[in-house]
Design goal:
Elements (H helix, E strand, L loop, with lengths): L1 H11 L3 H13 L2 H4 L7 E5 L5 H17 L7 E6 L26 H11 L4 E6 L2 H4 L2 H7 L6 E4 L4 H11 L8 E4 L12 H10 L4 E5 L12 E6 L1
Helix pairs in contact: 2-4, 8-9
Bound molecules: S-adenosylmethionine.
């Protein structure tokens, strides 16, 4: 992802993911959104890998606080990862020649160091372990106090993305913005990967994930969604 984003940055002069985070923070602080009851400033990242996207969020949040005078200490970052790389794929819809068990293994110490070096003064809450073990209803209840307002899902596999969405569903807020990094990693097949998880989730009559184009950066079209509950 890093080199793709860098190429786009070189051409457009902006970093699309940084922009997405920055503008989402701004739009979620708008009175017209807050009036709906949205609780802002809670970033959840599923799949921290080597910390590339996390760094972008931390930088965007710090800039946003500098510009608006918001207090960084009111920002929460929750990071969910095995910190041992990908698990074994468990479903046909996960299988991709680029991924296998142990790929992207970066330890929690690597990520903690990165957060410290970023100067971020908000709360950083790592959740270490494979999702089958960590994404429990007890954890979800603890997180109700800081419901997600921005969610970055970069977990590659269909099965991981489906577990993440099932876990999040009860605590997602109307207006939560979700970014899925790997939507196109099976050439757009609706039967595989993160796209399958999104389509299955959206098939429910009571919740929806709708592609969100308002931040207008072509690289992210089709990867950014807004959540709503009927
Ligand atoms: C491509 S990497 C994420 C890259 C990261 N967003 C970045 O920008 O550096 C995918 C991550 O998802 C994590 N992951 C995928 N499935 C998982 C699961 N079931 N449980 C825990 N972690 C998982 C892997 O450990 C890996 O760190």
């Amino acid at each position: 992802m890093k080199s793709r984003l860098k190429r786009i940055q070189a051409v457009l002069g902006v970093d699309p993911l940084w922009e997405l985070f920055y503008h989402t923070l701004g739009s979620q602080d708008a009175p017209s959104v807050l009036r709906w009851g949205l609780v802002p400033h809670n970033y959840y990242e599923f799949g921290t890998g080597w910390g590339d996207s996390l760094q972008r969020y931390l930088s965007a949040a710090r800039s946003y606080c500098r510009v608006t005078g918001k207090d960084e200490r009111e920002f929460n970052v929750v990071a969910f990862d095995s910190f041992e790389g990908l698990p074994e794929s468990v479903a046909e819809a996960d299988r991709n020649p680029n991924w296998s068990r142990g790929v992207y293994a970066y330890g929690l110490d690597h990520i903690t160091r990165l957060v410290r070096r970023s100067g971020f003064r908000g709360k950083f809450l790592p959740v270490k372990g494979f999702y089958g073990d960590t994404l429990t209803s007890d954890l979800r209840n603890e997180l109700r106090a800081i419901p997600p307002s921005i969610v970055n899902i970069d977990v590659d596999y269909y099965s991981s993305a489906a577990s993440v969405l099932a876990f999040l569903s009860p605590i997602l807020q109307n207006g939560t913005i979700l970014y899925f990094d790997d939507i196109y990693d099976f050439f757009g097949s609706p039967n595989k990967g993160e796209l399958r998880a999104v389509l299955e989730f959206s098939a429910s009559k009571t919740v929806s994930l709708t592609p969100y184009y308002l931040h207008g950066i072509p690289y992210l079209f089709g990867k950014t969604f807004v959540f709503s509950r009927d």
